[in-house]
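Blinded run. Sample ID left blank on purpose so nobody reads anything into the name before looking at the predicted structure. Input follows.
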Amino acid sequence: MLDKNGIAKRIAKEVKDGYYVNLGIGIPTLVANFVRDDIEVEFQSENGVLGMGPFPFDGEEDADIINAGKQTITTLPGASFFDSAFSFAMIRGKHVDLTILGAMEVAENGDIANWKIPGKMVKGMGGAMDLVASAENIIVAMMHTNKRGESKLLKKCSLPLTGVGCVKKIVTNLAVLSVTPDGFELLERAPGVSVEEIEKATEGNLIIKGEIPEMQLD
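Blinded prediction complete.
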């Protein structure tokens, strides 16, 4: 199965030349490290950065240049900085081609829960609600199961929702799946992972059509 970098590497293959891409907090921030060198992509962060690059090497961090998750980042030539109003005008105006988010749960109809766990203090939903409401192409990066081994790909989300019916594709440590009207369609399996293992780890309806290929990460 994949680690977090493996998930990000697979998602990077979904990024196309000329895309404007918003990277959410967590695994999605790693995607910028794996995008092909022969394409041009503009990464946007909701705190007001357009033109993010890979994470800096140790000793080269600038504490004033951060992403929405407060991680230090690099910027590419031509990058720009702006206020939150301008940033969310980009998002709400549908100027972002692809949104990559983490999640705690995804339902088989594409609902996503990624902001609140009951009983735990949180500052609020933040920009996640705007992202899922405005984006037309949402990919979720997540672990297939939680720390207790329970599926995070469910028939119905148990946590408070961030968005309804909005997720298009999911990449986990076990598989690549698309959200269809009938449930999760299994597209690829992680190296060394069997279809049976994915079935066991998926609570929601899993659609399997023919031979399922192994992910190609390179």
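Unblinding after everyone has recorded impressions. The radius of gyration is 17 Å.
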